[in-house]
Amino acid sequence: MTRIVAGVLGGRSIAVPGKGTRPTSDRVREAIFSRLEHLGVVDGARVLDLYAGSGALGLEAASRGAVSVTLVDSARPAADVARRNVAGLGLTAVRVVAETAERFAASLAGAGPRPAAPGTTAALDLVFLDPPYDLDEDALVTVLTHLAAPGVLADGAVVVVERSIRTPEPAWPDGLAAFARKDYGDTAVYYVEPSDTEPSDAEPSDTDPSDAGPSDSVDA
């Protein structure tokens, strides 16, 4: 079991799939959302949680004021657990889709029928990607490329990507640029934004006051 860290559902427990997923720890979720709330991208957001597993990241966003959340996972057992979590928490603006991240992201980019969040076709304000660490890097870049397509992300949107610190930094496609990275144990968290310009050669600044997360976090 894990729990919602904060918000209207703070402290509520949620189930996690028995195997095949790697839930983001409560400590790391707390650190991620501390930064995101400092950036002002959670309250009122339209959220997509790819490779969702139990849905912990998307459900945390819902607890903290997101107006709609879509949880996507290709594994039926994980999708079933996520549906039970949504029902148990009484969340009516959260839906669960049993689909691959690649196909779902492609549909958003116009390569198929667009599966809108509940009640809207608006662009996304916040996207989480926490794929299996052994996911092929090319597959991840394909998903990111679809997210970078025109109209998928809102102005000021943030994409959060979790990877192992032992895997290379993703090759960000045109239209996306990382502006910060934080490491928590074996997990590297990248914060990415829409960009119409080439990324700078300088290291991203990572000193904002929202970083009230785990004491073992370090700047990249």
What tags apply to this protein structure?
single chain; 220 residues; alpha/beta; eight-stranded mixed β-sheet; two-stranded antiparallel sheet; 26% strand; globular; disordered C terminus
What's this model, at a glance?
This protein is of the alpha/beta class.
3D structure, described in words:
The chain has 220 residues and is of the alpha/beta class. The protein contains five helices and ten strands, in the order E-E-H-E-H-E-H-E-H-E-H-E-E-E-E. The strands form two sheets. It has an eight-stranded mixed β-sheet. The longest helix is centred in the N-terminal third of the chain and has 14 residues, at 26-39. The chain is globular. Residues 116-120, 198-205 and 207-220 have low confidence and may be disordered.
Helix/strand layout:
Elements: E1 2-3, E2 13-14, H1 26-39, E3 46-50, H2 56-63, E4 68-73, H3 76-89, E5 94-98, H4 101-108, E6 124-129, H5 137-147, E7 153-164, E8 176-184, E9 187-194, E10 218-219
Parallel strand pairs: 3-4, 3-6, 4-5, 6-7
Antiparallel strand pairs: 1-2, 7-9, 8-9, 8-10
